[in-house]
Amino acid sequence: MTGAPAEPLRATVTIDPENHRGEIDRRLFGSFVEHLGRCVYTGIFEPDHPAADEHGFRTDVADLVRELGVTLVRYPGGNFVSGYRWEDGIGPVEDRPRRLDLAWRTIEPNTVGTDEFLGWARRMGLIPMLAVNLGTRGIQEAADLVEYCNIRDGTAWSDRRRANGHPEPHAVGLWCLGNEMDGPWQTGHKSAAEYGALAANTAQAMRQVDPAIELVVCGSSGRTMPTFGAWESTVLEHTYDVVDYISLHAYYEEHDGDRRSFLASGAAMDGFITDVIATADAVRARLNRRRHIRLSFDEWNVWYMQRFPGAERLDVAEAPRLLEDVYSDIDAVVVGDLLITLINHCDRVAIGCLAQLVNVIAPIMTHPGGTAWRQTTFHPIAETIRLAAGVGLVATVRAPELATARHGDVPAVSAAATHDPSSGAVVLFLVNRGEQPAEVTVRHHGFPGLSMVDGPVAAEGRTVLRLAPESWTATRWTCSAAPRP
User: Fold this and answer.
1) Is 180 marked active-site?
2) Which pLDDT tens digit goes with each residue over 322-357?
3) Distance of CA 165 to the CA centre of its chain
4) pTM greater than the 0.85 cutoff
5) Which of 31, 179, 281, 372 could make an SS bond with 366 (beta carbons 3.0 to 4.6 A apart)?
6) Distances 110 to 41, 87, 321 between C-alpha atoms, Å
7) Which of 46, 299, 383, 470 is catalytic?
């Protein structure tokens, strides 16, 4: 005998063309390739694979990356970069040294380095975001790498690049000043004051090589770090005038069967972003500056960290299987919700990097010598990137609250909306975090004749949608007339 159907949650979402956060930076939809596990070797690069191109990169993986639609890729780390000697990865491959990577206790053959990665990114149409090592190295090595990549000719490092077969500059415009330097696990971990001073001096030297570059300074590697807030404040006191962005990193997982808290991860990310903005703006006020620092959320994903034994327990190996999480439908819902949060902060979050792209906590998986395939999380990522365009609308949500053990009370429904003025398209992304269905009334009076593609017929200014429990939904709408002023 079955019970009566669950009474739906009832919520409203209101959108208006005049209430928006500005243009969405397409770099918000980036990803991350680190020399970790099989992300590079037997991930994007496998020269003996039947589908490898003349450069050794897998074309089947490249096809899925294009389908996913990411716009930017951060490289080469991650924890890996804090012990990386970039000079090891240039010049004749047969002359490159094999090194022990301290971050992940793996043997790095250096077959893929700066030139190979940047060539792949260029062929893929991806914006490269390079990180410099501020763990075991510093100012001179970072400036040298900018010279190697961005100066046309006539200097020692630019002429070395040309001799290595790359006559044109790589013209890398976006750079990270180290990685997670607040973390005790990081090779060369520093205090906020130590890192802030080093980052400021490094930024100045890199800009002296190429004044046009943009720079990302390390924020906290998580909202729960004991130095969170104080770290951002101290680092920005040192670097505010010489950097463009401050980074955020966050990973989410289900703990001890607490599914409801896991489904509220988007609300946790929202609080993290809000706190970093508040801290950055407080520094701006103290320094009496007009310019606002923007945010680079350059590591985010679902990652079951509790399954990872820790790098110190790993046996030394080359391209081992590490962090190859298999994702569920609920993981995909949470990833969709995290994307909603990023869109809802597009006025301050300019850059986002799903960590990572292939094999390592990734939407794309491969078999060495075999097939490549999509994980469940691939689909909300690809649909969001494909559909979200134009400006990020303010989607005002009124919904019942759900009590969670880890994040307090959160709205049962989350929403983000975009409007592309050039095409008139409106896209609404929704997540029902609750265990019962949801009935959502979308109010859109400012969009005359707005109707959902392949959806229910709307009354003027109002459409009712029904969401399955614990679900992510993307809807596309067309407008028959110009929005009302």
Assistant:
1) yes
2) 999 999 999 999 999 999 999 999 999 999 999 999
3) 31
4) yes
5) 372
6) 10, 10, 18
7) 299
SS3 409: strand
Over residues 166-203, the pLDDT tens digits come to: 999 999 999 999 999 999 999 999 999 999 999 999 99
- DSSP of 329-351, one letter per residue? HHHHHHHHHHHHHHHTTTTTEEE
Q: At what angle do helices 59-68 and 378-387 cross, to 10 degrees?
A: 60
The gap from C-alpha 149 to its chain's centroid, in whole angstroms, comes to 23
Radius of gyration of the CA atoms of the chain, in A = 23
Burial class for 8, CB neighbours closer than 10 Å (0-12, 13-18, 19+)? middle
Distance (Å, whole) CA 242 – CA 235? 11
Nearest to 80 by CA among 51, 112, 106: 106
d(CA 48, CA 19): 53
Pick from 382, 77, 396, 415: which is nearest to 267 by CA? Answer: 415
Q: Which residues of 443-464 are buried (b: 16+ CB within 10 A; e: fewer)?
A: ebebbeebbbeeeeebeeeebe
CATH number, domain 25-387, options 3.40.50.300, 2.20.25.90, 2.40.10.240, 3.20.20.80: 3.20.20.80
- Annotated catalytic residue, options 87, 116, 147, 180: 180
Q: Catalytic: 254?
A: no
